[in-house]
User: Fold this.
Amino acid sequence: MLPWLGESLLKYFGPFRLFTSYLFLASTGTAIAAIATWYFLPKVWEFLPRDRGRIHAVNAKQAEGKPVGAGLLFVPIFLIACLLVIPFDWRVVGALGCIGLSMIEGYLDDRRNGGWNEYVLGAFDLTISLLGAIILCQFNDYKIWLPLIKTTFMLTPWVFIPLATLVLWLMINATNCTDGVDGLSASLSILALIYLGGILYGIVGHQEISSYLLVPHYPSGATWALMAFVMVGCLAGYLWHNSLPSAVLMGDAGSRPMGLLMGLLVMATGNPFLILIVTGVVLVNGATGLLKVTLLRFFKITIFRNVRYPLHDHVRHSLGWSNTQVLVRFVLLQAIVTPILLVMLIKIR
Assistant:
């Protein structure tokens, strides 16, 4: 909306060109999303379902009775803010639709007593991930680049779609598993989104910089970056009320669409290995538990026998870490390790 207004009104008043500036749109979208989430969340959380606790989770009693499903508010705010600040693009509209579907799936799970069967949730996640992968490539060849080598590759849709579907499904579930300590999932996701937004806007989305760093240039990179920064605003407004001790929980209605968005942005950069770099702590915390359960359930292979998952439960139960220690240490790990790995990824090629 704003970019269209800027282009339409520029001929009448020069300063309207500000509405076509991606930096202005990013800051405006972030601010609108943060303020709207911060203001409206306390006004609606009394209508949200209540957390019933998890049987095997550490300190589950502390969450019982709190409003859960805050994503039902901040995800629609995210969608509206994106439509306001992002130049019209059918791929973006399709991606936003998938994120909305993921929110609905998560909210229905939040409000159901005992939640949905994990296989039902997995099937819904897989369907949404497949749809998101198709929207990304639109059944066209997709250019990707890899660490350590300068060569780029064109993947046919029959290769790209399964790869992207796997990445999206993995991010949805890893992010959902990480949502178990006040502020942890949102804080780690904010860091990941800032890194992804910077890569999309300042590296692959910038023709001169991408050429200098020998990475492909994606003209739509800056557009995808706006989505990252708008979600940062939503999560900042949510964290105001979710910081320890939390007054409200994001639930599946927030964690699942948030994970889907990060997966979409990773694939939009053209380098699927970025999932290991910008969301490494999320994957170690949540996805390794998925691996353990999968190997045990389907292949009768036992690994990490003495390790609880998600990992934040293990360090609280076995190492005696407090919730604050888990939050600060996990965030520090991602904040310090990610820039180091990014330099290695981009410069050693």
Notes: The chain is about 65% helix and 0% strand. The radius of gyration is 20 Å.
